[in-house]
Write the structure tokens for this entry.
Amino acid sequence: MLVQKKPDLTYADVTPKALYMGRRNFLLGLLATTAVVAGWKKLPRMFAGPAKGSVPVPLTGLVSSKYTTTGEKVTPENDVTTYNNYYEFGTDKGDPSQNAKNFVTSPWTVSVEGECAKPRKYSMDEIMHLAPLEERIYRHRCVEAWSIVVPWIGYSLSTIINLAQPTSKAKYVAFESYYDPRQMPLGSQAGIQLPYVEGLRLDEAMNPLTLLCVGMYGETLPNQDGAPVRMVIPWKYGFKSIKSIVKIRFVKGEPPTTWNLYAPNEYGFYSNVNPHVDHPRWSQAKERRLGEFFRRDTLMFNGYGDYVASMYAGMDLRKNY
Amino acid sequence: MNAILTSKWTKAVVFALCLVPLGLLIWRAIQGDLTANPINFIEHRTGDWTLRFLVITLAVSPLRKILRLPQLIRFRRMLGLYAFFYGCLHFSSWFGLDLFFDLHDIGKEIAKRPFITVGFAAFVLMIPLAFTSTAASIRRLGGKRWAMLHRLIYVSAIGGVIHYYWLVKSDKHKPLEYGFLVVLLLAWRIGSWLIHRSRPAPAAATPPRRTTPESV
């Protein structure tokens, strides 16, 4: 046991009690505050009642598609619905499946506007019936170097673009997500600017692979996967495939995109899957397919080069990452 | 309180409690409940606990002064070794599971990715501390030199926080929470050092101060 007595100190050396207690209380206060703040965040989940939000319903009359990807094992649905990046509902992968339970997606309208001859608002019911619903299996590669294979449901975005008749001024398409801080209280902590915005060059948007998606695994989309309508652009990193779309706008110039606004040196406008161009903080050469132990090589354009490579002929993809 | 803190059973209980995070991880693994990306989940959990044990270890000295419970020192070595233990699990889950012992990749990743460089350095700096954690090492090095060496834990803790901060994409809340705690605990040390310095005893009467590991 250490002897604490120090006879060389006089009473004058004693720290004034108020000062001593002050520091002590201050530190204890800080520790207590930290504990309360840490616990507070878990409270809403503990007292949540039964979910009141929209739930997936089965879709019938699906047609097969020549654009579906063959030879891939589809990822278990449970993985795709519990491992999500949807920052409006929290930044942990497991957050969206918990926090999107009360998300109400009906009624829903999508406004098609901007440089086009026939701008108009579409109800969700109209969107479900603009074209036969196709099932398309696509590889989906996240910028975080994991990937999944999903049987999406929808039709080519070109369907709705053709209806809108973009003018010659329209060079790009800008997308905007729904954002309601009351339904998405965690959005303010996401660190990124919301509502989420994305964009494509018009030729990319017209590419037949570019899917306007309303369902997956035979049902309408679950909330955490972007209900009721989202984009799926299989040759680009997942964050380009914007969720819960409320606005599609034809524009003249390259539109701002959320992750590019957040970190322009890390996330480019194009963000094509490219194993040769690393993210500044991690390698993009390999990916982990959910459910597999060994990492697999990432494919150029996520394996969809035959359909899309020609759109980027002559472009320096290292510069236009 | 003293009787509880000095009981040999308390040490055993704390030892067992520190294994609970690992136990929960193993339990979830048995249940097949490691999320859709188990390797990532294991990496993140073991990383979290490395940082938590670093913070807990750094909290021992301030708490024993603030709460006037010097006996807390009995647990500091064990807590520090647990920080190293979870650090080992964290590193080996990355190297063994994520990279699957790919020696080419590990060199490249450590050299090329700043967040891995700093995390790896923070881990490596813990190794000499773990190896000199015995009473014999304190005697061999001398209390003062031993204490100097073990201040490396400050560097490891700061490095661990930076590693986490640079890893996350946009939501910096959690790394900032750890950062806040580490800064608070280091500021307390600087503060008490300054207070100590500003009240020097009369020079002639000062006997040589005994430096013990406990006074760090």
Notes: The first helix of chain B runs from residue 2 to 6. Chain B has a mean pLDDT of 91.
